[in-house]
Structure formats: structure tokens, C-alpha cells
Amino acid sequence: MLTLLYGQFQRMLFSQVLCLTNYDRQWTEDVVQETLIRAWQNSEHLVREPGMLRGWLCTVARRIVIDGWRSRQARPQEVELLRPDIAESPDDTEQTLSVMVITEVVRQLSDEHRSAIYETYVMGRTVKEAAVVLGVPEGTVKSRLYKAMHTIRRALQDRS
């Protein structure tokens, strides 16, 4: 009887339950399976007319879904981890130390070097645009950037 029920009502039941479960395919499959098991357990009491049987199956499936929704609301919400490394909180210590070192080194730079970094890295200007803003040749901006970046890299290397 279970094979007959499955063959005759599985597709119809699956499509109706899928809507009730917000298109959760795994939960839908579980509900359909549980519905058919309950039909098999109550087989001697069921009316064999297809229309009545269809209505009974839909009612049982809907009640199983309602029970599922209620039990999900009664306990804390489950969170599915797709990747285990997401659960770990990131260690920002290295980045924080680097920012502290860079900040300190930039403070110690001359005004000319600091302004070259500000115009290019902070303001996003090209070397040519920074040269116009600073009123110096492009080559001067390039050499100031090179010296400033070299000083920052050396400070970061010394820290490690």
C-alpha cells in the first residue's frame, strides 16, 4: 500500500508541502515521508476513495508543517555554518599593530613627506595631480613618496 500511495500522491504532496515550508526541499521531503508513514500506520482506517485520501494526506502534511514551525519558534534559531572558519572571530591584532606603527611613523615624517602621502594615498590623486596641488615637480613628489614608503616599510619590518 505504501508504494501505491507514494506513486500516486508523492508529486502532488511534494509540491503542496514545498510551498508550506518556504521551499525548503529537505524539510519538504521529511514531511512527505512522515505523511506517507502515517498513512501506512492508519491504513485500516483510511477511506480508499482517491479524493478523500488526497484530502487526508494534505491535512496530515499541513499539520506536520505547522508542528514543525511551532517547534522551530519554541527553541533558539538554528544557524547553519557553511564554512567552519566563519564561526571563528577574526584576530585583528596584527592589523591593529600595523596601523599603530604606521601612524607613529607618519607622525615622525617631515611635512613634505606627509603631504605627498596625503595627496596620493588619502586623497587618491595621481602623482601629476599631487604635484600641482603641492606646487612641486612630479619627480619631487615621486622621491618624497619613495622615501616615506621606504621609512614605513622599514618600521613595519623592524616591528616583526
UniProtKB/TrEMBL annotation:
Gene3D superfamilies: 1.10.1740.10, Winged helix-like DNA-binding domain superfamily/Winged helix DNA-binding domain. The keyword Lyase does not apply. InterPro entries: RNA_pol_sigma-70-like (IPR039425), RNA_pol_sigma-70_dom (IPR014284), RNA_pol_sigma70_r2 (IPR007627), RNA_pol_sigma70_r4 (IPR007630), RNA_pol_sigma_r2 (IPR013325), RNA_pol_sigma_r3/r4-like (IPR013324), WH-like_DNA-bd_sf (IPR036388). Keywords: DNA-binding, Sigma factor, Transcription, Transcription regulation. Residues 5-74, 107-153 form the RNA polymerase sigma-70 region domain. It holds the Pfam family Sigma70_r4. Belongs to the sigma-70 factor family. ECF subfamily. This is RNA polymerase sigma-70 factor (ECF subfamily). It comes from Lentzea atacamensis.
